[in-house]
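Model: Ready when you are.
Researcher: Fold this.
Model:
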Amino acid sequence: MPKTDRVFSAKDNLPEVVLDFAAALRFSSHRVLVTPKLREWIPIPSFRWIPTSLIIDIRDILGHLCLVPFTIWNYRADLIVVKGFRTSMLALAMLGLWPFRRKLLFIIHHNLQWAHVRPHERILKLLFRMGLQFGLLEGEDGLAELGVKPNERRLVVLPLPVQLSHSLPRAHRQPVKPTEIGVIGRDLREKNTDDLLRLLVSWRSRGQLQGRIILASDNVKLLRDWQSEHVLTINTSKYEDYIDALARCDVAMVNYARDYYYYRSSGIINDAASLGTAVVCPNFPVLRRQVTEPVRVGALFDTAAGILPAINLALEIARTEPGNFALWAAHRRPEEFSRRIDAFIDRGRHADAPCDRGSPSTVDMSQKPVAEDRIGGA
């Protein structure tokens, strides 16, 4: 494929497009600390004679235990943002964290989804009612269905922060031929990668899908199994190769299972859209917000029959509405992430003050970001 201005090369020293929360909070006016993912706090190596699941459980336990002395030591912080907690272990850790609960903001990743499909994870509902503070990524969908009433003093909706500066140069790109449809990322069972590839290859072999299929993964066996005249495979063991693969595609596709992602956001969607690549994904509530707010950067499907029309719509959006990608990224820039955290801290400090009747009950993704002339350095 000839090089064009729409391909971001790893030689451009492109950093992660989805920022770590700590990097995104550099614009905060408060003292905010961010923990590592609790599972990764204590680096316990794996051993062949110890089951991987047991190692993960040990890491989780130690990470949640470490949160107690860490919080006590940093009690002067305005807020401590906690990543990667497990609901059941957090319930136990709260025995030591309870006096500091107003200092902690727990970021929900998979927890809300699990609360809907795993009975023992519904303890999350109790933690909400106890007044713990939570951050939801991209939307609050799933709370009402769980029986939780949103409280703006204990809940904040946050965008997955991206590097706006990397979207702007690509915002006005024009699609090039041949069209490339990407299935990119780690091969996990909840992504239904094989099912999606079978559909795409079938449509391409019958002439219903024009262009080339790109399969990019760090799973060597998956790449070997699917390499053919219809599928170009790319090994993404290196992060730069993953970014290159996303950036070269016209459309990036995900086919998440409902039980895993119905109330959960996707990092791949943010990576793709921030690079100016259109997205096709299932029509799940949080994913729908990611792809359509504040402007659409892709298309949705409800069934397998809707995937091909969604691909064509996503290509049309990329061709006719190229400016959407910069607007979408502006809504998720670091300043906006920091602004929402600061507003949440200020609301907590003025919890006893009279509430403004006109204020919303929660901070939602439809808010307009504050205008800025430029983005600061990462």
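Researcher: Now this one.
Model:
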Amino acid sequence: MKKEIEIEKLWQDIDVKECDNVLRYDDLCSNVNYLKMYGRPNYEQNCETFKMLRKIMGEEKPAIFSFGCGVGLDYLGAVEVFGEKVVYYPIDECKWAITETKNYKSFEPKLPKRFMKFDESMFMLSITQRNPVLCFFHSLYSIKKDRDLKKELVKILQSKSNFYFVCNFTINNHFGPMLNERDFIADLMQDLSKTFALKKLDILNERGILISAERKN
């Protein structure tokens, strides 16, 4: 029987002062408070999302691009479902203070040591030919607002044979995709629909969206 990943060890026994509940990436206390509140639910919902993805992909192996990945909790979900050899690209413009702690550096399975910036991730996406999975686990707008995200994604994805797109809003159990984010996804899929056969699936009781795309013959 596979041993459950004990994600609580990530923040266990870290001695921090009292602080408010506002998430500040460079503040260890803020990181620990956030993870105590949302770490376990995020991990479990990411696992559920990846299980749904695996049902669709079958034995194919994903190349996961995790935008706004934070400390990489979704990597643990990917390992749980796809195994430790899963290809995973952690993308985040902000560095979390907890990534410098002994807990993080000694955690098993190993968490990401290096995080990509957005431009680097776009390059890696451009050269990934099979099964790219674009994951937005907190918000589509974790990307800098001065980027034309839809334009950049359409340009790169047009060259692919297939891809998967996942929006899973796990920052809080009660959140779901906001209307403007649903509109963004609808516009993106509309722009790609001439090239790809698209299948959309609501997941997590409609708190998430999973889309598979195969190039038309």
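Researcher: Key takeaway?
Model: The radius of gyration is 17 Å.
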